[in-house]
Every structure is written in C-alpha cells, then in structure tokens.
Design a protein that fits this description.
The chain has 213 residues and is of the alpha/beta class.
Length: 213
C-alpha cells in the first residue's frame, strides 16, 4: 500500500517545471517501495520533498548543459535520479554495490522513463579505470577524506567532485585539505544551492581535480 505523501511544495514547481509530474511519481515510488526496500525510513515520508527529492534536485545547477556525471552510492537514487528528472540533458550514471538496490534503481528508472540514466552495480573503487566522468557526486556516503579516495579516481582530469554535505561542510573540507591535495585537487570550496527553492540551501563541497591527473 502506498503511503500518502504531501503535495509538492512551490519550490518543486520552480525546480522541475514541466517535469514536475515525473518528480511526483518519483516521490510516490520512494514513499512506497523505497520504504519497503529499506532505502528510506517511514518517518521520512512526510518530509520527502524537503529532505530528499527537492534537496537533491537543486544541485543540478552545478552541472553544465549536456554534462556526464556519476552518482556514487546512489541508494534511493539520491541525488542522481532527482537531478536526472530536473535535467534531461544530463547523462547520469548511478553506482550502487547492493544487488537489491540496483534492481530497485533499474525498475524506478524504467517506471519514470528516464532514458538519460544508466545503473551500474559495484563499489566505486571496483570501477576505477572502467568508469569516469567530468563530474562525480555523492550524498551521505562517507566523510569527505574517505569519499574523495573513492570518487576522485572516477573524476576525469580537470573534472569536479560535487559532494553533498550538511552544515558541517566547511569543517569537513578543512579537515580533508591535505588528503585532497595528495589526491590531485587544485581548488575546493563550499557552494550553496537552491536559494528561493528550498528553505535551507543545500551545501556541496566542490573539489576541482588537476587537469594533468
């Protein structure tokens, strides 16, 4: 039985535009099989839009037109599926190691008719040398120093890691600076996304990789 979810907030109309119905369908899937598969908790359903769907979709402004990106540890398709709905021009690759989750992701992508999304089963480190993109993103996977070790080898030279982080983004960045430098990061910063769309801006730590590495 599908759990009732709140209506899409006004910000969702601004973020998804003519693709809002697809975003609403994604929210409904999360509230139903997303809960039964243990991808999100049942208590998260009333705040699906603010905490998950919209919170993730607003990072779409980090990617230029037609960009290819990898979402590491995609889980419930967050942020990858949300971004792919908002930006059909993007080529989105979801990386997830657990079979049950990759099957759920594949089914969800099919239900939503997202022809710009590809699902890959495996750990990020298993795909080093096999999969790469100019942009790599991740949400709630690990602390920045560990996440960078997994994600930066998937990031093409001169590319960017866009790591979703909470209010401790600046502290994590400061603590990981030496590790990032050793991994070939030439610049890094904290960016806010979603002003005027979400009540509290979504934060990402953006790490630019040396174009020679």
């Amino acid at each position: 039985m599908t759990t009732e979810i709140p209506q899409a907030p006004q910000g969702a109309h601004r973020c998804f535009g003519g693709r809002l119905a697809r975003a609403e369908q994604f929210a409904a899937i999360l509230a139903d099989t997303g809960v039964s598969h243990g991808l999100i908790g049942p208590r998260e359903v009333p705040i699906l839009w603010e905490r998950h769907v919209l919170n993730c979709a607003v990072i779409e402004d980090a990617f230029p037109q037609g960009a290819r990106l990898i979402d590491v540890g995609s889980g419930a398709g967050l942020p990858g599926v949300a971004v792919a709905i908002a930006r059909p021009d993007l080529d989105v690759h979801l990386v997830e190691p657990m079979l049950r989750r990759t099957e759920w992701l594949s089914d969800t992508v099919t239900q939503l008719g997202l022809d710009n999304v590809t699902v890959h089963r495996g750990r990020a480190e298993e795909l080093h040398g096999q999969l790469s993109a100019p942009f790599v993103t991740a949400r709630a996977v690990a602390r920045l120093d560990k996440l960078a070790r997994w994600c930066l080898p998937l990031t093409e030279p001169g590319g960017r890691l866009v790591a979703m982080k909470g209010r401790s983004a600046a502290e994590e960045l400061a603590a990981a600076t030496k590790v990032l430098r050793r991994l070939g990061v030439v610049s890094s910063s904290v960016t806010e996304h979603g002003h005027g769309i979400v009540d509290e801006p979504t934060l990402t730590v953006d790490c630019v990789k040396d174009d020679r590495s």
